[in-house]
Amino acid sequence: MIILNKPYVSDFLVETIKKNGFSVLDNEIARNYFDIKDLTSSDEAVELSSGELIYSNSENSIDWVLENLQNSDISRMIKISKDKVLFREALKKIYPDYYFKKVKLSKLKEIKQQELRFPFVLKPSVGFLSFGVYPVKNETEWKNVIEKLNDDIKKLEGFFPKSVVNMSDFIIEEMIEGEEYALDAYYDKNGEAVILNIFHHPFFDDQDVSDRAYYTSKGIIQKYHDKLKLLLDKIGKEIGYKNFPFHIELRIDKDKIIPIEINPMRFCGWCITDIAQNAWNINVYEYFLKQLKPNWHEILKNSTDDYFYFTMGDIPSSIDKSKIKSINYDKYLKNISNPLVIRKIDYKNNPVFAIVFARTKSIDEIKNILKLDMKEFIDF
Q1: Whole-number Å distance between alpha carbons of 213 and 295
Q2: Domain residues for 74?
């Protein structure tokens, strides 16, 4: 069963559902795309849930699962995944020396600096994307973060339910060195990890925590697939993941691989996971719901050395969106040599104005996108 929800449902996902006849939970968002007679009622979904694989395009659907399937295994897996403290505690056997601690928002100002291990990262215990994430290198940066925290929390209020982003509890954890990667995968009925895509997540500098761009390539899959599958199988065994789709972010420093967080019941958000169709001819929704496994040897044998990437045209948080008159999409797209899919987003009600899938032979194109000042493409 698929649960559709805000913030974004792609045409590709809708077409996949119709082509395969996948069941869809009846809710307000689903009715925008399907007749009510073709949807599965909440009561029916609860009855069928024990034998159903469940996927959602958005973590906003977590509330329905936790409320209606309270004692199910998927609820257990979601709770461990979404709470970064529970997730760290579950992986203590794999990472016995990893430093982290949970702190309530109301207690952050009371922490004595001698209790902290610089550098570290402060983030919501329950979070999504890079909202509310603060890298802290020293005492000065810690003071600055504490001062701006309440303003940032006010900006985030109303965007996501508390099951997705909850700023009442935070985790302080050691700053993980290395390059950041992310992957879309699922655990099958036996708890074995099946990798559907691997992305590199580049940053402009060491203060950048944005999700401006991610890219994949033949070289990335060849280099990291086997290592990451080995780790994911260990994680799955520790937590007991089965029949579970997920998006995970990790840091890789030589042979050291440490997960940052795992996002349950979905692949890459905003339906950006669709890029696997462009890069590898993999429809991730079909692969999970039909329990298919990519033959990476054959896929890579017939692929090029090009980079496939997605980029998000983000609205700077300092901008009053009510004053925006329009977006200059033509000017924005001049920075992308070979756009494959262009999705214009309702920027009045979302933090981004566009998502673009693209293909390039030059990594410099992606690096240039990280440097862009998005204000240049916004007309007031």
Answers
A1: 26
A2: 2-81
Whole-model pTM?
0.89
Residue 268 contacts residue 250 (beta carbons within 8 Å): no
The 10 Å CB-count burial string (b at 16+, else e) for 34-66 is beeeebbeeeebeeebeeebbbbbbbbbbebbb
| CATH assignment of the domain containing 139 | 3.30.1490.20
pLDDT, tens digit, for every residue of 345-357? Answer: 999 999 999 999 9
Asked if residue 256 and residue 226 are part of one domain, the reply reads yes
Q: Please name the amino acid found at residue 4.
A: L
* Residue 300 sits in the same domain as residue 249: yes
Sign of CA dihedral 312, 317, 322, 328: negative
* One domain for residues 246 and 193: yes
Q: Which pLDDT band holds residue 209 (cuts at 50, 70, 90)?
A: confident
298: Cβ–Cβ under 8 A, 6 or more apart, which residues?
none
